[in-house]
Design goal:
About 35% of the residues lie in helices and about 20% in strands. The chain is α+β, with helices and mostly antiparallel strands and about 240 residues long.
Length: about 240
């Protein structure tokens, strides 16, 4: 008798806000259908926008903040029978086929004859998202953090520091000091890092450079390419899948 590598699948719509840090003895796959989450796992931040997921090995603490509420799934896996053994938290892209496989498995009984081949296909398609690691520090001060979380949720937001100062009931001078003190970057530099970081998974899944540039807040592709090269040392096109 074939033993399923999937213990259970949870599906829900967590409300926007902070989620407590916790761990599971078994590995889990977090998948966002429509939510945007700033996760914390393996001592680093992970931005999980719609259509992406995060593999978390058993025993690794994870938590984070739901920036935009929406549908999410958590797949609990049996480490003894799961074909994936990634030792560290790993980002993944969940395209249309994987999405439908997860939804199909959520709605089927353990003894459904389609379950075993569906599980096999899911794990065959699940692959690490090849991204350049662009670390970004989120401020702890509530005023600066509110701005950072908003920009991580919507990197195309064009508001400048004076606009944000009114929004978070602070001053430009205070915010100008907080960002370098808490992140090591000026506000403008931090926003650029956030935009380039958000661009990488879009490129990695085949989104054209011009479309990606607009999605992360650049009106001119040339400005996006210049910023991308400055931060990563490479051009955006290198992250596009072969044949794109």
């Amino acid at each position: 008798m074939t033993v399923s590598p999937i213990l259970s699948i949870e599906r829900g719509t967590p409300a926007a806000g902070q989620q407590r840090t916790h761990s599971h003895p078994e590995p889990v796959l977090l998948w966002s259908a429509t939510a945007t989450v700033l996760g914390i796992a393996g001592a680093r931040d992970w931005l999980i926008p719609p259509g992406y997921g995060l593999w978390v090995p058993g025993g690794v603490e994870h938590g984070g903040t739901v920036l935009h509420d929406g549908e999410m799934s958590v797949i609990h896996l049996d480490a003894a029978h799961c074909p994936i053994t990634w030792p560290a938290p790993t980002g993944v892209a969940v395209g249309p086929l994987l999405r439908e496989l997860i939804r199909h498995l959520y709605g089927t009984e353990p003894h459904d004859p389609t379950r075993t081949p569906s599980e096999a296909l899911l794990f065959a398609l699940l692959a690490p998202l090849a991204t350049h690691d662009i670390p970004i520090t989120v401020p702890t001060d509530p005023r600066a953090r509110a701005i950072a979380e908003r920009l991580l949720a919507d990197p195309a937001d064009q508001r400048e520091l004076a606009d944000w100062a009114d929004h978070v009931h602070s001053s430009v001078r205070t915010l100008s000091r907080l960002f370098p003190t808490e992140t090591g970057l000026t506000f403008a530099a931090w926003r650029t890092h956030a935009r380039i970081r958000a661009a990488v998974p879009l490129l990695a899944t085949g989104t054209p450079v011009n479309t990606t540039a607009r999605a992360v807040g650049y009106r001119r592709p040339s400005a996006f390419i210049t910023a991308f090269r400055r931060i990563t040392g490479q051009t955006p096109g290198i992250y596009l899948p072969a044949g794109s």
